[in-house]
Write a structure and sequence with these properties.
Length: 191
């Protein structure tokens, strides 16, 4: 078995509009962290909603239930040494703060990362065609269109994913984790 320098789990909590880059960055970051010896689990909003949160909709109450479930599972994993990346829109500031409180109460670092692409950019990308549906009135209550998104006021990191490349965003995430002592330097990990 490969020896690793990992001692602490943590929760890297992505928040941002649909199309801001949550899935892209999660999918790119997870293998990089594994290469450095971390055990990584991803809790992606879309995937969580097909299992853990099946049946929930997009009312404030249902979104909050979804987010607090994600926080609960993230806490269980991270307190056992897993590096957890969550990738849900998590639009409400107060609910993200509840997630932070529950997780940090266990002594687990919680790093909120705001993927701050503008609505215009996300809508122009329209990765899944959902913004067009929302504008056409076929998807009421869509975040950013006719449902709120409350940006973090003091995230541990803000990434301008509308302007930066994926590689630049990844480099900033790696720097954040290294700077907090949560990621062993590449040179410390036996290849
Ligand atoms: N009304 C509405 N508003 C926002 N998003 C919607 C909506 N309906 C469906 N979708 C799709 O669901 C994905 C967001 O789910 P999340 O679990 O991340 O949302 S939340 O954190 O509970 O608010 C989101 O995925 P991402 O594009 O990956 O963000 C959408 O594909
Ligand atoms: N710096 C960046 N970070 C993340 N995604 C980016 C970035 N620059 C451009 N993109 C593109 O933006 C889109 C983001 O879509 P996605 O990851 O599905 O967003 P979300 O999961 O937040 O809905 C992808 O097509 C991705 O290639």
């Amino acid at each position: 078995m490969m020896m690793t320098g990992q001692t602490h789990g943590f929760v890297l909590w992505f928040t941002g509009l649909s199309g801001s880059g949550k899935s892209t960055l999660t999918n790119a970051l997870a293998p990089l962290l594994r290469e450095r010896g971390l055990r990584v689990e991803v809790l992606d909003g879309d995937e969580v909603r097909t299992h853990l949160s099946k049946g929930l909709g997009f009312s404030r109450e249902d979104r909050d239930t979804n987010i607090l479930r994600i926080a609960y599972v993230a806490k269980l994993l991270a307190r056992n040494g897993v590096a957890v990346i969550t990738a849900a829109i998590s639009p409400y500031r107060a609910t993200r703060e509840r997630a932070r409180e529950q997780i940090t109460a266990e002594g687990v670092p919680f790093l909120e990362v705001h993927l701050a692409a503008s609505l215009e950019t996300c809508e122009a990308r329209d990765v899944k065609g959902l913004y067009a549906e929302a504008r056409a009135g076929r998807r009421p209550g869509f975040t950013g269109i006719d449902d709120p998104y409350e940006p973090p006021e003091a995230p541990e990191l803000r990434l301008d994913t509308g302007v930066q490349s994926v590689e630049e965003s990844l480099a900033a995430l790696i720097r954040l984790l290294e700077g907090r002592g949560l990621l062993p330097a590449a040179s410390e990990v036996g290849a």
